Amino acid sequence: MKTSIFSLLVIILLTGTAFSAEPVKIGAILPLNDVTGKQSAAAMKLAVEEINLAGGVLGRPLHLIIADDGMLPEKGAAAVERLARVDNVDIFVGGMSSSVHVAQIPLLKKYRKVTVWAGAASSLCEDMLENEPWYFHLHPWDYMQGQQYYKGWAEISKKFPRVRLNKWFFAYEDGAYGTQAYRHYLGLSPPAEWKRRGAHFRSSASGQADYRAVIKQAIAYQPDIFVLVGYEADAPQILQQMRDVGYTPPVFAGALPGWPSDFGKSSLAENVSVYSFWSPSMNKTSRAAEHFMKAYLKKYGEEPTTYFAPLAYSNIYIVAEAIRRAGTLEEQALIKALEATNYESALGETLDFKQPSKVIRHQANPLYKIMQWQNGVLQVIWPFPMATAPFRYPYKQTAR
Would strands 369-374 and 273-276 be described as parallel, antiparallel, or unpaired? Predict the structure, then answer.
């Protein structure tokens, strides 16, 4: 795929491209007040620009229409309605927040346009989409994530016996994402000696964050590992409040869709563990990952900091390649073409829809990695064959 695009780019830069046909309209709904949405939008624009320079699809340009959901369910639902009725988009892409997606799904089911969704991890969303053939999902559901996390930490503690993980504490945001993720953590079967406890908080995404109660409960419990399940702004605030009261767990892990763009530069970040698909340190893992990183850096002058950027970039390419294979935008042909996806993604791994989830037919399952901020760089520590640095233990907050 990349070889053909690179060749076309050279030709078109020399000859120019003119489109006479109507554009293929792609409707993306993203939280532009969050790093995940901002960088997803940038990555999607980059992919559309590359594809159009290479001739578009079926002789037609891609036209990306981005709507901001503001991480608000009502705003996300209104965006589906507007894109479907006013903009008359051909395909839906994007997404991040599960709580927003819960409100969007009834409208997506109403319009039944082919949808390739990059975000939303809560299985509440999955349950609402049973037997819907037009829906394709890139992000693992919460129970898939939990299984991968437990496997990773079990292997880390086996390789490094001094890493104790017998007592777990989950601080989770009280929306659909955090609540369902915690329920699924409890429903999974970790090693028998692992004990788990959790407490919920109101996320910064709601505008009324308060972490004092969960920190107090964690101090009383004294866990071996503290897992934060929340959103972008939650991590620096809870870490700062933990620093203020002098509390440092042996392992701090964050299950966040995105992190603040400058988080790695903060003293709060050092030795914080992260669950993610991708980091800039992986940019040499494949040709696709390296191309994305170089192109994004050239266009925007900075590295992406959230895996949603390469995921969103891949989102557009998966749709474009399926349209090419289908030779049409007709629903059944496009669904069949998407089912044949075998895309070498910017995440450094190949994505397909060959394995259904518990409920939906068309599920990709990229591998979550466990990473750690070390000297301002987000290093991969598990899986071990992909590791870019060894695990540092215990987590210790550095000086202010």
Answer: antiparallel
Q: Which two three-digit tokens encode residue 132? A: 């819907």
The pTM of this model reads: 0.83
Whose tokens are 């993604």? That residue is 345
> How many domains, in total, are found in the chain?
2
CA–CA separation, 259 vs 145, rounded Å? Answer: 18
Q: Are 67 and 28 in contact (CB under 8 A)?
A: yes
Burial class (CB in 10 A: 0-12, 13-18, 19+), 270: middle
The dihedral region occupied by 135, where left means phi > 0, alpha psi between -120 and 50, and beta the remainder, is beta
Hey, what are 397's tokens? 């907050």
Domain region containing 323: 2-141+285-363
Instruction: For residue 52, give every residue at least 6 positions away whose Cβ sits within 8 Å of its Cβ, in sequence order, or none.
Output: 17, 19, 61, 62
Q: What are phi and psi of 99, to 5 degrees?
A: -60, -40
Query: Are 297 and 261 members of one domain?
Result: no
Residue 7: Cβ within 10 Å count: 11
What is the Cα–Cα distance from 370 to 268, expressed in whole angstroms?
18
Residue 179 phi, psi dihedral angles, 5° rounding = -65, -45
Domain membership of residue 64 (yes or no) is yes
Per-residue pLDDT tens for 152-163? 999 999 999 999
Do 303 and 181 fall into the same domain?
no
Q: Where do the H-state alpha helices sit in 253-389?
A: 287-300, 308-326, 331-339
Query: Facing residues of 135 across strands?
Result: 115
Under 8 Å between Cβ of 344 and 350: yes
**pLDDT tens digit string along 298-349?**
999 998 989 999 999 999 999 999 999 999 999 999 999 999 999 999 998 9
The helix/strand/coil state of 269 is: coil
Cα separation, 145 vs 376, whole angstroms:
25
Q: Are residues 239 and 373 in the same domain?
A: yes
Query: Are residue 209 and residue 275 in the same domain, yes or no?
Result: yes
On whether both 83 and 156 belong to a single domain, the answer is no
